[in-house]
């Protein structure tokens, strides 16, 4: 599993990649973002809010998930954030 953050201006993107051939799970320490909400970039699907506990994800082999992390209260809290691809 390979997980990393990308930041640009007020935008935070979490990239999680399963490089293995088989399904894997990962526990991520995202306590820096407690209360924030991950929104999957391609589908717009909301994922559970980040807490102080490890953030758990299970992924298929050679799969990836990219999330826009949104602060409590939505993007307005940090200013207007342009959608990806705009």
What does this structure look like?
It contains no helices and six strands. The strands form two sheets. Strands 1-2-6-4 form a four-stranded antiparallel beta sheet, with no helix packed on it. 14% of the residues are buried. The model is unreliable at 77-86 (pLDDT under 50). It is mainly beta and 86 residues long. The protein is globular, with a radius of gyration of 13 Å. The N and C termini lie far apart (29 Å).
Protein traits:
single chain; 86 residues; mainly beta; 4-stranded antiparallel β-sheet; two-stranded antiparallel sheet; 0% helix; globular
The total of helices stands at 0
Helix content: under 10%
Please provide the ordered H/E string of secondary-structure elements: EEEEEE
The parts where pLDDT drops under 50 for at least 5 residues are 77-86
How far is the first residue's CA from the last residue's CA? Answer: 29 Å
Largest sheet: number of strands, sense, barrel closure: 4 strands, antiparallel
Number of E-type strands = 6
Structural class: mainly beta
DSSP strand content: 35-45%
Q: What is the radius of gyration computed over CA atoms, rounded to a whole number of angstroms?
A: 13 Å
Cα shape? globular
């Amino acid at each position: 599993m390979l997980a990393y953050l990308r930041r640009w201006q007020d935008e935070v993107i979490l990239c999680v990649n399963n490089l293995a051939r088989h399904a894997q799970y990962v526990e991520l320490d995202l306590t820096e973002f407690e209360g924030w909400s991950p929104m999957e970039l391609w589908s717009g699907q909301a994922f559970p809010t980040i807490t102080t506990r490890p953030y758990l994800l299970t992924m298929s082999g050679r799969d990836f998930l990219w999330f826009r992390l949104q602060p409590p209260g939505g993007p307005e809290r940090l200013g207007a954030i342009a959608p990806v691809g705009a």
